[in-house]
Design a protein that fits this description.
222 residues, mainly alpha, 9 helices
């Protein structure tokens, strides 16, 4: 059986599974590009943030995070901590908690972006099972309604059984890669979150060590 026969043999449900596979591929490619480490935790930005932390130049660090090039996963987390630190005399003590909260929010946002892949991985086998039930119903109807065992009888019976098996096959072919890709992307996001935490540790320590009035003097005037 050719590749196109596998596609056509699943009927309407087969085409739905095929459409889901296209959606899954598109989301997976976009997520793979979005979750690259050099986009989430750029080495250049990490070095600049560490330099600002050593110089206690928190306003420059915040401006870096607010810039277009600094609007990254690690940049948004750092900005949350610096902004909390600049709000008041005790802000430096709250900076680490603010960064942890921001990190959880940013990580959850990335996870939500790949949730569709997990949904497709769950739905595809169910659609395959639906096609199996449909094909078996058609096969039993053929056996029950066709009186003479002509060539059309065997052809109709074989077609229904084929639908039952092909849709199951299609559902599994889509679901298995989706499960693997979703797991790989989750590990990539978890690894980026860990890298961001380690990269921002010097900044968090610097914010905690600087006195509150010094931080307040860094705050931009509105």
């Amino acid at each position: 059986m050719t590749f196109f026969k596998y596609i056509e043999g699943g009927g309407v449900i087969g085409y739905v599974i095929l459409a889901l596979s296209v959606v899954a591929v598109a989301i997976a490619i976009a997520a793979a590009l979005r979750t690259r480490r050099d986009r989430l935790v750029p080495d250049g930005q990490v070095r600049r943030l560490r330099a600002h932390a050593e110089a206690r130049d928190f306003r420059a660090a915040l401006e870096n995070c607010r810039s277009e090039s600094g609007d990254t996963f690690v940049g948004r987390i750092a900005a949350a901590g610096i902004e909390r630190a600049l709000r008041g005399p005790l802000g430096g003590l709250e900076a680490r908690a603010a960064m942890e909260d921001a990190g959880e929010d940013e990580t959850a946002r990335l996870f939500r972006a790949i949730d569709t892949i997990a949904v497709i991985a769950s739905v595809a086998p169910l659609l395959g099972l639906l096609g199996t039930v449909q094909g078996m119903i058609g096969a039993f109807e053929t056996v029950a309604t066709v009186a003479t065992k002509s060539s059309s009888y065997y052809e109709t019976l074989a077609t229904n059984i084929s639908i039952a098996l092909i849709t199951t096959f299609q559902g599994l072919v889509v679901a298995i890669p989706c499960v693997m890709v979703h797991s790989l992307l989750r590990r990539r996001i978890d690894r980026a979150a860990s890298d961001a935490g380690r990269a921002l540790e010097p900044l968090a320590m610097a914010l905690e060590q600087v006195e509150g009035h010094a931080l307040s003097s860094e705050a931009p005037h509105t």
